[in-house]
Amino acid sequence: MKEPIKVFKFGGASLKDAAGIRNVTSILQRYKGQKIVIIVSAMGKITNALEEVVYAYFRQDGTADAYLQKVKQQHYSIMNELFESTDEVFAQVNDTFVEIDWILEEAPQDSFDYVYDQIVSVGELVSSRIVTAFLNKSGINTQWADARGLIRTNETWRESRVQWPETVENVKSQVEPALQQGMFVLTQGFIGSTKDNATTTLGREGSDYSAAILSYCLDAMSMTIWKDVPGVLTADPRLFDNVVKLDRLSYMEAIEMTYYGATVIHPKTIKPLQNKNIPLHVKSFIDPDGEGTVVSGEIEDFHYPPMIMVEKNQVLLHISTKDFSFLVEHHIKDLFTIFDKYRIFVNMMQNTAISFYACVTDVPDRMAPMIEELSDKFNIIKDEGLELITVRHSLPQVYEAVIHGKMVLLEERIGKSIQLVVKDMPAMTRKNNS
Ligand code: ADP
Ligand code: ASP
Ligand code: MG
Q1: CA angle 237, 243, 248 (to 5 degrees)
Q2: Ligand 1 contact via 249 beta carbon (within 6 Å)
Q3: How much distance in Å is there from the Cα of 228 to the middle of ligand 1?
Q4: For residue range 96-119, what is the model confidence (pLDDT) as tens digits?
Q5: Within a 10 A sphere around the Cβ of 62, how many other Cβ atoms?
Q6: Is the entire prediction scored with pTM above 0.85?
Q7: Which single residue of 117, 216, 319, 376 has CA 20 to 30 Å from 274?
Q8: Is 205 in the pocket of ligand 2 (CB under 6 A)?
Q9: What residues form DSSP beta bridges with 349?
């Protein structure tokens, strides 16, 4: 029999202002008396704003502090709506921001990626202080926990990997006792720390993954991510009309969808949950009574409607041998060694006699040196600003709709799944001069 622990994750959209924090509190009121672990992200778009601080700091053009002041002000104006000026949370938040002040006082000594993690992690540290304080003020007894004492990672800054045995031990020994005492436990998503206590981050949008890590460690009964949509939809409603909510999804379908761009769930979230057969609920924080979507292992042969995923910011690399020799296995091995070295992820590929096509996600600061290295051995043509569209369980009319106004550069079909690398193409119209 599993311990009845429920893990909840609230992302930036649910915490973007004082009303959002009040709404989260009213959702949590419904679960009083249960064992609840809460994971929060930074508020609203704060992670992007903190990235601006890091970029400015590395430019050393004197603007970093102004960017930081903006971030501080956003928090203080929300706090002024929620707290009395004498409340302890102001000192906690100030003390957290001081960490960034100290970094900015001196010119950068450490690598960009290391400093990035030290600065950007502050978004989650601050939001978790504010939400915990407001829950306690509202009569929900909640213990704040530092995720850096829970989630142990390696030292791959900005994309660190979880070290599971230490993490399981930390979570069990630190979180369970507070739950036993009847408190909710609230901690940060997205962040962890190395064995030397240096702060790390798990990759952008990684808070869903943090919640899955905690769910795994605690053998949770279920995990719920609270979103601004009614559940998992057949496509991103920002991009497509007439989308439909999926009531249930298998883990496998969810992994495929999220890997290819259904950003409603971080792709790394599913595996830890599947490993322990923990159901994932995707529910609306606007309509908490709504059924949402449940992702679980019990529905493999469900008949799904067509689903569309879009990955923006794609580059198509056309790689060919310089001397017209066939592009064979050892070339492909070399290519993947180089992709791996620069952490450039290949989303789709095809090859011909002397060419290899790879659709990869653009990361400009890693792409430029990678292309330079590839150019020693290969001719490279790069097509930028593309989209990778994936259609699962496709029907002919859906295919027609997604390619409308697009030029298809690469296409692959496996059963009813279609992948297309496309470029926007203005529709040509015939001039009226007969
Ligand atoms: P948060 O960071 O607050 O946890 P996100 O903004 O990362 O939430 O995720 C929710 C958003 O995911 C939605 O507003 C929606 O635009 C987008 N999204 C993309 N694909 C889908 C999909 N298939 N179903 C639902 N939402 C989707
Ligand atoms: N705050 C982090 C980000 O915006 C993590 C998350 O929101 O999941 O990437
Ligand atoms: Mg998010």
Answers
A1: 105
A2: no
A3: 7
A4: 999 999 999 999 999 999 999 999
A5: 8
A6: yes
A7: 117
A8: yes
A9: 358
